[in-house]
Amino acid sequence: MTESIPWLERTREAAIEPELPVCDPHHHLWVHPTSRYLLDELLADIDGGHRVLSTVYVECQQFYRTDGPVELRPVGETEFVESVAAGHARATGRRNVAAGIVGFADLRLGAAVLPVLEAHLAASNRFRGVRYATAWDASSEIRRAHTDPPPGLLGDGAFRAGLACLGGLGLSFDAWLYHPQFGELAELAQALTGLTIVLNHLGGPLGIGPYAARREAVFEAWRSGLAALAQYPNVYVKLGGRTHTMSGFGWHRRERPPGSTELSTAMAPYYHAAIELFGPSRCMFESDFPVDRASCSYTVLWNAFKLLTRAYSAEERRALLHDTAVRVYRLAE
Q1: Domain that residue 145 falls in
Q2: What pLDDT digit, counting tens, does each position of 252-284 carry?
Q3: How far is CA 230 from the centre of its chain?
Q4: CA distances (Å), origin 95, targets 28, 215, 251
């Protein structure tokens, strides 16, 4: 994060193929005691050489309202991001920052979540959906998602009623879970066929804790689960998260960050498998910054994505780097 910038500078690259349009459909803004990532930091990254035409902000439990009904407090995050995005647009004439906003609402409220979703929509015409992270694993060595979810939440009746409200408003659901939970998401996709589901970070194939010494077995289990999900046309995949520390590659512990060639080689089996299963029209590359900045810089990461896609057609590359995200999140650029 902020404290790792001098380390990131040890591996510097110019952006390759800077003419290619990019939409980054997954980043955060936050302020933590040891980490700041706000508009200035985001702009330093997206203006680093790649042609980033738009971004999508995804919730991270920041900037909530401090009073009023508890269920409405997450609307403060949408209000904050809208103010940042609108201010940037007024100052520059560009709507590229947070052209879409994915916020949080407590879907466990069931049908009672509807007023919360309506409040998000009233707060910003950029609001596109909700992420409720359900990442959970039985191992104490695997950190649960920031929502501290119980196991099996995707199958809960009230939770599904809340998801149905999303679908009724034409909003999408961003799903963040780990690869052993794919079966739960497949059941959800089958039950709510009218809901657009965006699987974050390739579905979190784990590489730490009890999974650390089982990379090949994890890959096969992950690919099998992903193949089952691919049969549901309402499911889309974000291609990213492999530079997250939980992936188990250990890049964040090295003397210098990896370059784009090394990254693309290591990540290729995962990304090519997902693209083969879902097709470019249902896949979108993402940065997941600043989380994935633990392993590499923004410019290096998108260089790796571009290297990974060089064997695809121009139309397929455009879908993967830009068009799929813009279509799924209904962005205006």
Answers
A1: 2-328
A2: 999 999 999 999 999 999 999 999 999 999 999
A3: 18
A4: 17, 41, 34
